[in-house]
Each structure stands twice: as structure tokens, then as C-alpha cells.
Amino acid sequence: MHTQVIIIGAGPTGLMAACQLARFNIDFIIIDTKPAPTHESRAMLVTARSMEIYQQMGIVDTVLQHGKVISKFAIYMNGREKAALKTAEAGNGLTDFPNLQAFEQFKNEELLYEQLKTTGHDVLWRTSLLSFEQNEDFVLANLYDKSDPFRKISVKASYLMACDGASSLVRQQLGLDFAGGTYQNKFFVADVQLNWQQPPNKLIASLSRLNFCAFFPMYGDNNYRILGTLPEGFAGTDHVSFDDLKDVITNNVKLPLSFEKLNWFSVYKLHHRCIESFRVNRCFLLGDAAHIHSPAGGQGMNTGLQDAHNLAWKLAMVLQGAAGKKLLDTYHDERHPFAQWLMKFTDNVFAFMTGRNWFIYQMRTHFMPYILRLVLSTKWITRRIFRVLSQIWYSYKKSPLSLQFIKQKLKFSAGDRCPYVMTEVDGKLQSVYHLLTEAKFHLLCIGGSLDSDYLPGNLKPYIKIVNLPLNESWQKLGVKTDLYLLIRPDNYIGLMSDEISPALITGYFDMFKANVN
């Protein structure tokens, strides 16, 4: 069997990779050992940045209709609210999706799987990777079809995308060191129906000396995800049931509640690990196969989705002959630093929220509530927190793909996510993101006006021109005269300039056209 890309793993990351490759008309196969998408909720939050990807794909309305908006994040101690962050509309003016959105992992998988099938593709379920080998020109993978014990499949492809999770066989066969460690405490997760008097859109983190519990609202009436640390008394216990923890949870939160139904329960250890190279020749590692960390901030699944979004268009350009292999190095250049930052960020947050050290406990219980009340009442700090949690703040400024030639003093730069600007779209005022939905680069001509004949002939299939007025929204960002932004297919600024020319556009693409396949 021959294809262009093999995707190992059909979780959220692998399904996103498949959907993105389908958008660019790249041939691929995607396999998974499971018989179907998972039915466990697992990851909970979908960030604004991920919502923008879903918007680009035309499937965001499903998340809005079947997800749950979290309007408040509160910290509790001894049954009392000590500090709170109003998250409802916290991102107004920053994105089309200004709320924290709960949309469980299995729903993301169902959404992406249904979208994949609309493109004429499907997953090879019950199919495992046995082994693979790379040479200069291709990857050869040996697969095993569990539904037919006598059927072995050999697949030859240009590239392989490893989206096979924290226990990645691809990573193991590549011999990559998964550097990091394991948190000392064990953790539990339970999806339950609760009977209590708390508002349905409120996320609660309850802190104590002995353990930590967080209550995430889920879709439906009184459905919650409870995440917590096991008290030291359970350290030597091999089998812990949810019934064993009911009193632990109620003693921690000290709020009147009863458990109506248990839908899922698991006890596990958390790890924080990251590989040193996201690319090994023709193999790429994405999501949990490349980096894992604590669930603090709900960043994990979203980071995997964005890994796939970052890599897919680059693979497409190389496979279509519009770019050389050099472009593929930028996947590691751009995503590895973010994974490193994220691991440190979640480590620090989680250590503070769950640490049993006497000093940390005293800080957490006696000082932080007052500090948090002051901090969270400040609007610009609230917006900054939203930018971090939503992942819209991150920039590829240091990427070799980020170039700028400007004299204007702007509030954004090359490598940033496309500025969130309101403009007239189809006769009504909408964000510019409604114009960035095609699987190609977009050349935003702000104040200027160009047509497709202006583009170099060989680049016309890869760039769409969008003419925009220099309105008040752009002026607030420092734009005084004509400005040209070349927006990458993943909606980050690749090139920005006060002036534009066919030679400048060609030069940008020539920058990564060496070693064309």
C-alpha cells in the first residue's frame, strides 16, 4: 500500500492531523488500535485558540451548542469561597470565543471523526503498528489488522505522524528519551452526577493541607468532573474505588452534596515529560507522544490539536512541491519551545495547588486568597490570564518563518496570531477570522487593494488576497498607512510589510524552498 502520510493514533491529535491533511488534499491513512473513538470524557476544556481552528474548519457551532460555558472559577477553602475569577466574556475583544468552554475529549473525537468522514476518509480501527523503518526517500510501516489475524499490511509513505499518546510505540522505536519525571502523589478522576446548590457553570478548586479537589462542570444537568489527589493514607493501597473517596471529597470541599451517579472513575499517576526533538528524519511526534504534563489549565488536548494544525500545512506544501524539506524543521522550532514553557507553567501551578509542604500550605491558605482577590479584580490582569489559558498569546516571533519590514509602530509583529480585528464581512460586522477559512495563505491588504493577477504565477494556488479597509480597529493597533500581512494557513503572521511586491512574496517562499522533494 502506498500513501503520502501515515498517521498513528486516532485520538484528538491524530484526527485533527487527518482533517487538516484532507483540507489540503493530501493522501494519508490513519490507524488506531481501538475499535472506535473513545467514550471516556478525559480532557475537558477547549481553548479559544482551538475554537478558532474549529471555526476555520466550519465545525465550531457544534462545540458552542453542545459544550458548557464556564462563567466563574472559584477557589474554596473549608467550604468558603476565598477568591474568584469571572471568566464569562473575559476574552471580549480578543477572540470570537471569549469564554472558557468545556467540551469533553470524546466529544472532540466524535466531532473530528464525523468531519473526517465527510471528506471521504475513515480510520483503520483495530489496526496496530508493529514496526517501521526509514530511509532517505520514504517510511515503510508494518501494520497488524486485529480483526484478521492473518492480515499484515505494509505501507510505504513519504512521512509518518506519531499521534499515539504517552506510551508512543513510535517514540520508543526511535529510541527517544522522554525526559522528565512523575508526580509523587497519585490522582483520581471521576465523572459524576452531583446534587448540590452550586451554580451549574462554576468551576471550583478546593484546597486543603491533605488533598486537592477540583469540580469541572460538564454538559448536561448536574454533571461534573472531579479531579483530586489521593490522601497519604491511600499511598500503599493497590485498589481504590470511588466509594473509598466519597468521604474524602466531601471533607475536602465542606459543601452539602450527594453523589447521584458515577459515570467513570480512574486512579493514576501524572507525569511531566518532553522529548528533545519533535522530528526524526521523516517521523514527527505530536501531542502526548511528544510532551505530557499536569492537567492544570486544561492545556493538554489543545496543545496536541495545535501541534497538528502547525505541521499539516507544512507537510502539504512539501508534498505538493511548493516548499522543501527545510520547512519541516520549523515544526520543532515552533512547537518544542511552547511544550517546554507549558511543562514549566503547569508544574508550577500544580505544585502550588497540591503541595503538602508546610510553607506552601501556609502561603496557599493565609496569603494567596488576599493576593488573588486583589489580582483577579483587576481587568487587565484578568484579560492577561485569559490570553494565557486560551493559548492566543503565544507567538512564533523567533521562528525563521516570521519576517517583517515595517516602520510603523504596531502592537503586533510577525509570528503573532493574526490580530483580532472587526471588519465588514458579508454585509455585517465580523472578525477577520471569518475570512481566513481556506486551506492556503491569505494576503491581507489593509488600506491597499490588489487582485490575484498581482501574485507570482507559481504561487497563485497557495495564496488568497483579501482587501480590507484601514478602519478604526486597525488604527487602534497602530496601523497608520497601508499594511500587508501574509497570514499562514494556521492563521499566524508569516510576513508583514509596509509595502508589497511580487519579488517580496516570492522571496518569502524561496526562503524555505531549498531541497524541494
From TrEMBL:
<keyword id="KW-0560">Oxidoreductase</keyword>
<feature type="domain" description="FAD-binding">
    <location>
        <begin position="3"/>
        <end position="345"/>
    </location>
</feature>
<keyword id="KW-0285">Flavoprotein</keyword>
<protein>
    <submittedName>
        <fullName>FAD-dependent monooxygenase</fullName>
    </submittedName>
</protein>
<keyword id="KW-0274">FAD</keyword>
<dbReference type="InterPro" id="IPR002938">
    <property type="entry name" value="FAD-bd"/>
</dbReference>
<dbReference type="InterPro" id="IPR050641">
    <property type="entry name" value="RIFMO-like"/>
</dbReference>
<dbReference type="GO" id="GO:0004497">
    <property type="term" value="F:monooxygenase activity"/>
</dbReference>
<keyword id="KW-0503">Monooxygenase</keyword>
<dbReference type="Pfam" id="PF01494">
    <property type="entry name" value="FAD_binding_3"/>
</dbReference>
<dbReference type="InterPro" id="IPR036188">
    <property type="entry name" value="FAD/NAD-bd_sf"/>
</dbReference>
